[in-house]
């Protein structure tokens, strides 16, 4: 294992740093990320094209982690379709393991979901194979799962509360939450996987 990979696996996430990055960059990229989602929803019905755009949407945090300003038309780039096989394999294997873990009283399923959350990004951004990406995602999230879980809970709680108060408020928050949650994932990915070598 290279020194860079060892360093990446020793990193500890900071809860406040993730939220700060998420809100700052989420608002900065708000319009372009919402445009990405609108374009994706408009084209999700087009066979084959929808595979590439879906992979692009799922792996947007990898681009955001590099401080890139997102061009909404980038989701149509053909480069995303070249990862089709590995992407479907990593998602299928991850979901199978999470499903089996969920059978053991739900909590193991949540833990495994967090453990494998970075695997699709590692496939597309770093060119890792499906099994390698799953193993690597599990290793780099080790010791950081609780922080990642807290970030998602903190972002989700207002949505649940607003949903109880008045549904339109929850919908408005969900629209705001979309770019913020993508940037939260970008912060997590950038800190834990930024130094990992490609290939």
How is this structure best summarized?
By secondary structure, the protein is mainly alpha-helical. Helix content is 74%, strand content 0%.
Structure explained in plain terms:
This protein has 199 residues and is mainly α. The relative contact order is 0.19. The mean pLDDT is 93. Helix 6 runs antiparallel to helix 8. It has helices at residues 3-10, 15-28, 30-43, 49-58, 60-64, 84-102, 107-115, 119-126, 130-141, 145-165, 167-193. The radius of gyration is 17 Å and the shape is globular. The chain has eleven helices and no strands.
Task: Itemize the secondary structure elements and their pairings.
Elements (H helix, E strand, L loop, with lengths): L2 H8 L4 H14 L1 H14 L5 H10 L1 H5 L19 H19 L4 H9 L3 H8 L3 H12 L3 H21 L1 H27 L6
Helix pairs in contact: 2-11, 3-4, 6-7, 6-8, 6-9, 8-9, 10-11
Q: Roughly how many Å is the radius of gyration?
A: 17 Å
The helix count comes to 11
Proportion of strand residues:
under 5%
The secondary-structure class comes to: mainly alpha
Distance between the termini: 13 Å
Shape summary: globular
Largest sheet: none
Task: Give a count of the beta strands, DSSP E runs of length 2 or more.
Answer: 0
Ranges with pLDDT <50 over ≥5 residues?
Answer: none
- The mean pLDDT is 93
SSE order, one letter for each helix or strand: HHHHHHHHHHH
Q: What level of helicity do the residues show?
A: over 70%
